[in-house]
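Can anyone check this?
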Amino acid sequence: MSFRYSSRRVWQRRLWPSLTCTNGNQRSQQLICLHAQQRRCVASTADGVASTANAERVLFPGALNSEFTNAMQFIRPSTHKAIPTYRVLDQYGQVLDKETGVDTEDEEALKLYRNMVCLSIMDLLMFEAQRQGRLSFYMVSAGEEGIAVGSASALHPSDVIFCQYRETGVYMQRGFTLDQFMNQLFSNAKDLGLGRNMPVHYGSKELNIQTISSTLATQIPHAAGAAYALKLQNQQQPDIAPRIAVCYFGEGAASEGDFHAAMNIAATRQVPAIFVCRNNGYAISTPTSDQYRGDGIASRGAGYGMDTLRVDGNDIFAVRRATKEARRLALEDGGRPVLIEMMAYRVGHHSTSDDSFAYRQRVEVEDWKRRDNPITRLRKWLEGRKLWDEDRERALRSSLRKEILVAFDKAEKEKKPPISNAFEGVYEHVTEEQRMHIEELKDILERYPKEYDIDPYEEGLESLTKLLEKQK
């Protein structure tokens, strides 16, 4: 496993040791001086080398290590080999490098397998619940369980995570409970998001996971900015364990402008971040063949000067090892961004609003289900070590199904959040305009009780009355 390195880092290695941890204002001044000093060094070096009559290399500020050549050769991607895909296990669950092994204890591997199976069963049950009209929306993670569960298991609990919408396994691995999942899916009174988001848009301040947004790719620049803040925090508070930002997104999101802006600022500011791209073959209905001509998403990381690796997302051990190493690199030399392209195949539909068989053959999906997936591959490894068998499989699936259905039943019976949640959390105090809206809504609900059933909402009209009184 090897990452690609940026030549820009040589200047940071020379200059970074001169920085010492002081207060915020001094630190800001030091960082400004650092960037200015870097620019002066590059400019002066380029001028010095360029003035030499027999110079073999000119350190142009825009390409520091470019050598002269009298052969005009265009770079043609088709003549280069594709970036390799790192793996630890083959599709039969056999370890490829016996000496290195899997870096995972047997007990931990069993926990990872349990979480992946739990995620798979929950996806099946929730998909059916949506089809029955009991949920308004859902997205499954079939085929990508190993990416979410495996990467999350290799991160520190304090690392700040930005998800897209298919990272349910990240939440599960970090400790998000089945009750919390179900409360959010039903947007009930116990939902941590106060009923303000559509289903599968989870969030947890306790677990350091930012709330998911429907808007595609917006979490990527958010992660780059957060990582820069963490870089400053890591420098100014050396007594606290250093943290990084981790961002997940699909290859379709990498076609958005936000992706490129985020990659560039992360690379130029050398922030401690891991960008995890789930390349599952489809951006809703668009296959990768229609999304890009280049070598996947990994080639873009190298283009931005970032350490980059492509990984077999069906191999949870490869995912874990790559994430561990990426985190180490992200904290090296004060911080640097790392891009990991996790390769997978989206077995399920894009969402419950999608019919993927309208744009791909059913036989293609069934072939992937049968041939290789992260759950099956890990199970083969466990069975090879005599840690798993069919009896344990049946018992696990039966118990998990019951746990999920119990949580589902409880959440479905909970009341909806108080109506007052629609007005709180925007301003510190209710504005005059908001007060008029609250009073008008309260009046309508009182005058037309048959048209507006407020019994399912916690506290009913009383929540609006309390809000008005509290803000007097």
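Reply from J.R.: I decoded it. DSSP finds 16 helices and seven strands in the chain.
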